[in-house]
């Protein structure tokens, strides 16, 4: 009798964690993680311990959605206290680095007025030595330039705190909120302590397409599993889906939800902003999950680092299937303008392409071109890129959350590349504050009134219409609207139809149709044939 072969069951979610917190760039990249642990995570846990009941209640209250409340029941406050102590011990050097950076930056601004910076190196606090260069811009504003590569080689990079949590996902809403709630151990979960860079991770995820005997999986997971009964409920012996390559004359775009789209063209596959979900055991919106994606993803494209676009759980699970990971280039002048390329390398990606605007990669009878992505970051210059995929004579623009702040950008795009027939873009009205997810990067004292109108906002209906007109589009797909419930742990519950943002989206669709375009708002998996 042949041995039973297993793969991870569809409801098994694998969450990469850093000391029990979800992994995203603000918990992995060394400087942002140091600032985040010092200024966000530790104060948040301390606040929770002062009033666990209040936090637990507020985290469940839909009226307070988006607030910073730890969603842990008060009976488990002891576990939160233990986690706080463990973090204070294991990340004490990160806290010292964050304090030193903040203090020194403030001092430097007062001290450096255009004179030589050379003598100031002596004043560098110990945690920053060897990690930074002092510099001026051309109008003598001083700043600290972090040498991020050096930090990944040093103690502030903490692969020893990384783990993969295997958990049975009951419902989308049951996943702890990415920014505010640590993953305490629950019955039925397995915590596999393993650095994200380890090649062994791929041995587990290869079973999505090539199931293996139980003994093999136990060998891979090592001491994280002590009994078969721990692992078996997380597995299935149902065979994986069989992928049939798309052979149509034009491209096929499988919209997979939110900003994630799979482009299939002449044997090549490109996956934009990969965010793929487990399929919860209690049901929920239908979705394609990992074993239903192609065995090979030639290019995975990242538009920007908001965690609804750069999702470490999805990237690690698909790592062995991704040929090249394409990321936007950072400038490295701001501590929050971390390098997505170095982050990807620290997660074991070997082939990372960092494309400048209008740099391109050839495809069979086509091209992948990085194009400008303006706005949406509240005037803070962090890495971002939109992409045009040319398939024969058709061009598709994946604009993600781009905002049309300057018509000339899109006028030039058309001039440089010719008409772009199909545009994928989101719609926003107000957007989140520009410090959304990033508060730890900013000093406490600043003019918040002045900052008020700086938002993380994509295009509104009028700005969207201008983009469509300027690039010569005939087809609009309004996407990245957060309508799929598997985004809830990142960006909160989907907007109701009468939310201002949804009305704005309706207006965009109506106006676009009145101008003769095909216009559709996407929600949940949909196959599109934009070349037809
Ligand atoms: Fe965004
Ligand atoms: Fe987004």
Kindly list the characteristics that best describe this protein.
single chain, 532 residues, alpha/beta, Metallo-beta-lactamase, Chain A, seven-stranded mixed sheet, 16 helices, 28% helix, globular, binds fe (ii) ion, hydrolase, MBL fold metallo-hydrolase, Metallo-B-lactamas
How would the blueprint of this fold be written?
Elements: E1 7-8, E2 12-18, E3 21-22, H1 25-28, H2 30-50, H3 52-60, H4 77-90, H5 92-111, E4 132-136, E5 142-146, H6 148-153, E6 162-168, E7 190-193, H7 200-205, H8 214-221, H9 228-231, E8 235-236, E9 252-257, E10 260-265, E11 268-272, E12 297-301, H10 312-318, E13 322-328, H11 340-346, E14 352-355, E15 360-363, E16 366-371, E17 386-391, E18 394-398, H12 407-417, E19 422-425, E20 432-433, H13 448-451, E21 455-456, H14 461-471, E22 475-478, H15 488-491, H16 500-514, E23 518-521, E24 526-528
Parallel strand pairs: 11-12, 12-13, 13-14, 18-19, 19-22, 22-23
Antiparallel strand pairs: 1-8, 2-3, 2-6, 4-5, 6-7, 9-10, 9-24, 10-11, 15-16, 16-17, 17-18, 20-21
Helix pairs in contact: 2-3, 2-4, 2-5, 12-14, 14-16
The site of one fe (ii) ion has 6 residues, from loops.
Brief summary:
The protein is of the alpha/beta class and 532 residues long.
């Amino acid at each position: 009798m042949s041995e039973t072969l297993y793969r991870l069951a569809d409801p098994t979610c694998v969450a990469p964690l850093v000391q029990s917190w979800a992994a995203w760039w603000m918990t992995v990249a060394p400087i942002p993680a140091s600032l985040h642990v010092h200024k966000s995570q530790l104060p948040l846990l301390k606040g929770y311990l002062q009033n666990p009941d209040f936090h637990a209640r507020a985290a469940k209250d839909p009226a307070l959605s988006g607030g910073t409340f730890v969603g842990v029941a008060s009976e488990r406050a002891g576990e939160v206290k233990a986690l706080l102590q463990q973090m204070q011990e294991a990340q004490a050097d990160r806290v010292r680095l964050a304090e030193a950076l903040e203090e020194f930056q403030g001092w430097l601004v007062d001290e450096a007025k255009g004179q030589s910076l050379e003598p100031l190196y002596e004043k560098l606090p110990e945690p920053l030595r060897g990690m930074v260069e002092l510099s001026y811009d051309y109008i003598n504003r001083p700043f600290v330039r972090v040498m991020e590569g050096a930090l990944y080689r040093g103690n502030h990079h903490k692969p020893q705190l990384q783990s993969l949590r295997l958990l049975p996902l009951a419902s989308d809403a049951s996943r702890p909120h990415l920014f505010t709630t640590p993953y305490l151990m629950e019955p039925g979960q397995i915590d596999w302590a393993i650095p994200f860079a380890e090649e062994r991770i791929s041995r587990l995820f290869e079973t999505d397409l090539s199931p293996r005997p139980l003994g093999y999986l136990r060998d891979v997971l090592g001491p994280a599993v002590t009994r078969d009964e721990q692992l078996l409920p997380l597995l299935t012996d149902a065979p994986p889906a069989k992928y049939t390559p798309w052979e149509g004359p034009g491209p096929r775009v499988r919209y997979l939800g939110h900003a994630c789209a799979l482009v299939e063209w002449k044997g090549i596959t490109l996956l934009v902003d990969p965010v793929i979900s487990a399929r919860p055991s209690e049901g929920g919106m239908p979705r394609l999950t990992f074993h239903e994606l192609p065995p090979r993803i030639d290019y995975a494209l990242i538009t920007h680092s908001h965690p609804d676009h750069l999702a470490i759980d999805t990237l690690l699970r698909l790592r062995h299937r991704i040929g090249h990971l394409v990321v936007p280039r950072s400038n490295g002048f701001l501590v929050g303008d971390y390098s997505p390329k170095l982050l990807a390398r620290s997660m074991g990606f070997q082939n990372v392409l960092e494309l400048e605007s209008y740099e391109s990669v050839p495809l069979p009878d086509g091209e992948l071109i990085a194009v400008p992505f303006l706005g949406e970051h509240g005037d803070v210059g962090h890495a971002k890129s939109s992409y045009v995929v040319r398939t024969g004579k058709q061009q598709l623009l994946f604009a993600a959350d781009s905002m049309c702040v300057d018509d000339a950008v899109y006028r030039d795009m058309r001039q440089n590349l010719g008409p772009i027939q199909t545009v994928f873009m989101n719609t926003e009205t107000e957007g989140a504050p520009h410090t959304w997810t990033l508060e730890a990067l900013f000093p406490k004292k600043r003019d918040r009134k002045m900052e008020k109108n700086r938002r993380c906002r994509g295009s509104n209906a009028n700005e969207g219409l201008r983009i469509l007109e300027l690039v010569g589009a005939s087809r609009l797909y309004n996407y990245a609207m957060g309508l799929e419930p598997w985004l809830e742990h990142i960006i909160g519950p989907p907007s109701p139809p009468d939310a201002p943002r949804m009305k704005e989206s309706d207006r965009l669709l109506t106006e676009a149709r009145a101008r003769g375009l095909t216009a559709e708002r996407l929600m949940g998996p949909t196959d599109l044939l934009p070349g037809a």
